[in-house]
Amino acid sequence: MIEKQQGIAWFTICRPTRRNAIDYTVMDELHEAIELAEQDDEVKVLVITGAGEDAFCAGGDLQVFHQLKTKEEAYAMLAKMGNILYRLLTLPKPTVALINGIAVGGGCELATACDFRFARAGARLGFVQANLAITTGWGGATMLFEKMAYDKALHLLLQAQTITAEEAERIGFVHRTFHHSLREQCEKEMSGYTNKSTHVLRAYKEAATKRWKTEEFRRRFFAEIEQCAHLWESEEHEQAVQSFLAKRNK
């Protein structure tokens, strides 16, 4: 769902019964939101959040994507979302992940693509992909190493556990934690940007993202996606997913 208000375009993932997991429809809707933010001069900030109070985004929807078995099938899906997150990463407007609840797996990759990450106090976040015998598949690790201290980023990826928003703020992944009124607090934080010229916002963002528009960075970004696709068709990944689904369905 996309709405505009006071210079902010709000994109809300509306799949609360699936913990706002991403499927192909959400991918297409997110692409539309990015297009809107890029082309509409009235939009000065893009904020991404999840519907409800429990989840920001639980990553890719396993019920949908577990049907993909070969590395070619996996790569088609991973590259589709990877391209969307690359556009989000390099969008010439400020972007915010408003993490209203749990963010795991691809949900953390989505948040990493944004310039700022604000989170509800107590929300849990984690790059848990390694527990499913795969790596980040949407460019998340490549982006994370750009945005955090090396050792802290590597620890998040290798540990593959969830941490609280407060701990994520302490290590520099989350920029602010809010205890209540997330949307209002986010609007307040962004008010210093939305009263500025769109041309100024674009100029600063283009200066900031120039280093990510190189062929070398794109090569690393999509090599990560290709590596995940290779691991995707492994027996180890298949067994890990089957075990995860069995536990969840008990």
UniProtKB/TrEMBL annotation:
GO cellular component terms listed in the entry, alphabetical order: cytosol
Which species expresses this protein natively?
Anoxybacillus pushchinoensis
Tell me the keywords, alphabetical order.
Cytoplasm, Lyase
Give the E.C. number(s): 4.1.1.94
The answer to whether keyword Cytoplasm applies is yes
For this protein, the record's CDD domains field holds: crotonase-like (cd06558)
Output the PANTHER family linked to this UniProt entry.
Answer: ENOYL-COA HYDRATASE-RELATED, ETHYLMALONYL-COA DECARBOXYLASE
The molecular function terms in GO held by this entry are: methyl/ethyl malonyl-CoA decarboxylase activity
Q: What class of enzyme is it?
A: lyase
Q: What reaction is this protein's catalytic activity?
A: (S)-methylmalonyl-CoA + H(+) = propanoyl-CoA + CO2; (2S)-ethylmalonyl-CoA + H(+) = butanoyl-CoA + CO2; (2R)-ethylmalonyl-CoA + H(+) = butanoyl-CoA + CO2
Family stated for the protein in its record: Belongs to the enoyl-CoA hydratase/isomerase family.
Principal localization reads cytoplasm
- Stored SUPFAM superfamilies: ClpP/crotonase
Q: What is this protein called?
A: Ethylmalonyl-CoA decarboxylase
Q: Which Pfam families does the entry link to?
A: ECH_1 (PF00378)
Keyword Lipid metabolism in the entry? The reply is no
Gene Ontology biological process: fatty acid beta-oxidation
Q: What does this protein do?
A: Decarboxylates ethylmalonyl-CoA, a potentially toxic metabolite, to form butyryl-CoA, suggesting it might be involved in metabolite proofreading. Acts preferentially on (S)-ethylmalonyl-CoA but also has some activity on the (R)-isomer. Also has methylmalonyl-CoA decarboxylase activity at lower level.
